[in-house]
């Protein structure tokens, strides 16, 4: 899709970096397999990175670093996730037995091992959206975070409804121009995001809590849904782009990564990353024309907005003298977000950046701020600057 859109010659691309989260063993370096499948030369190196929900952000900034270091002129970065077909493992007991069985030399040894297999050996291990360090699912963390910041179920539902409504408006208005049609084998061609479903507060209010039962406030309606998806972007040094006759969309101007307590502050990455990236870029919140934040949960977004607007939080948790301030909603995720567009883990970062660039073009702004939380208590923020039109 990227090659068709940009007409970039395959042999000009120096390197390919992709992000993914739930890896398939057969294609653990999915960047390399995708590159070969797309017809790139087998001489073009490719590697895969993983950093939970900010994996393609890491792919982008890895590419930026390689260009800045003079290693490359042209990099393709992106991410991919196939949530509809995640690898499911045998139990550890079964895996151990099968590996031992593979090494057994005599029939007697094999039969002895087989006789030790018990029914519970056949229980599969499903990938869980849970923290390894705390064993807590992200939904539980979101529920606790919403409670800690006093965010009601109604506020979360209202924000989720806003996301779906804005996404539908953007889709109907032809603004989501970065979507590439994809032919699903045995099914119809997918031409647009199919998770955008503006509902009503009444309908959303009927849903039961999804994680903390019966008193939780996080539901299926105010959480991002898991979906399949892939993203790709073309990164070049400005000199190379102009020499090849390309007009860039935007500069990836500055970026930071942060990490904090994975239990109580799992989803507060944007709060910690935003002031740091603004300081690095020499900007203030008032300079930002477009905000694109990853919407893991409505409660997570609203908690970040409250934390960013709190002097107390800045002083007690961030070691800062004053708050950075909350982004104004009229500039925030105006074309929908992960709550309405879906969240294919490894692909979302590039979507955020490209949407920021397109919004800057459409709205005539100069600076965009992209931010996201990620599992492990990590986070990312990036400044996107519109290329002079």
TrEMBL record:
Belongs to the thiolase-like superfamily. Thiolase family. This is Trifunctional enzyme subunit beta, mitochondrial. GO terms for molecular function: acetyl-CoA C-acyltransferase activity; acetyl-CoA C-myristoyltransferase activity. GO terms for cellular component: endoplasmic reticulum; mitochondrial fatty acid beta-oxidation multienzyme complex; mitochondrial inner membrane; mitochondrial outer membrane. The keyword Transit peptide applies. Its EC number is 2.3.1.155, 2.3.1.16. Pathway: Lipid metabolism; fatty acid beta-oxidation. Residues 246-385 form the Thiolase C-terminal domain. It comes from Baryphthengus martii (Rufous motmot). Keywords: Acetylation, Acyltransferase, Endoplasmic reticulum, Fatty acid metabolism, Lipid metabolism, Membrane, Mitochondrion, Mitochondrion inner membrane, Mitochondrion outer membrane, Transferase, Transit peptide. It comes from the Eukaryota. PANTHER family: ACETYL-COA C-ACYLTRANSFERASE, TRIFUNCTIONAL ENZYME SUBUNIT BETA, MITOCHONDRIAL. Mitochondrial trifunctional enzyme catalyzes the last three of the four reactions of the mitochondrial beta-oxidation pathway. The mitochondrial beta-oxidation pathway is the major energy-producing process in tissues and is performed through four consecutive reactions breaking down fatty acids into acetyl-CoA. Among the enzymes involved in this pathway, the trifunctional enzyme exhibits specificity for long-chain fatty acids. PROSITE patterns: THIOLASE_1, THIOLASE_2, THIOLASE_3. It is an enzyme of class 2 (transferase). It is found in: Endoplasmic reticulum; Mitochondrion inner membrane; Mitochondrion outer membrane. It catalyses: butanoyl-CoA + acetyl-CoA = 3-oxohexanoyl-CoA + CoA; hexanoyl-CoA + acetyl-CoA = 3-oxooctanoyl-CoA + CoA; decanoyl-CoA + acetyl-CoA = 3-oxododecanoyl-CoA + CoA; an acyl-CoA + acetyl-CoA = a 3-oxoacyl-CoA + CoA. Pfam families: Thiolase_C (PF02803), Thiolase_N (PF00108). The active site is at 53 (acyl-thioester intermediate), 343 (proton acceptor), 373 (proton acceptor). Residues 2-239 form the Thiolase N-terminal domain. Gene3D superfamilies: 3.40.47.10. GO terms for biological process: fatty acid beta-oxidation. The keyword Glycosyltransferase does not apply. InterPro entries: Thiolase, Thiolase-like, Thiolase_acyl_enz_int_AS, Thiolase_AS, Thiolase_C, Thiolase_CS, Thiolase_N. Heterotetramer of 2 alpha/HADHA and 2 beta/HADHB subunits; forms the mitochondrial trifunctional enzyme. Also purified as higher order heterooligomers including a 4 alpha/HADHA and 4 beta/HADHB heterooligomer which physiological significance remains unclear. The mitochondrial trifunctional enzyme interacts with MTLN. Interacts with RSAD2/viperin.
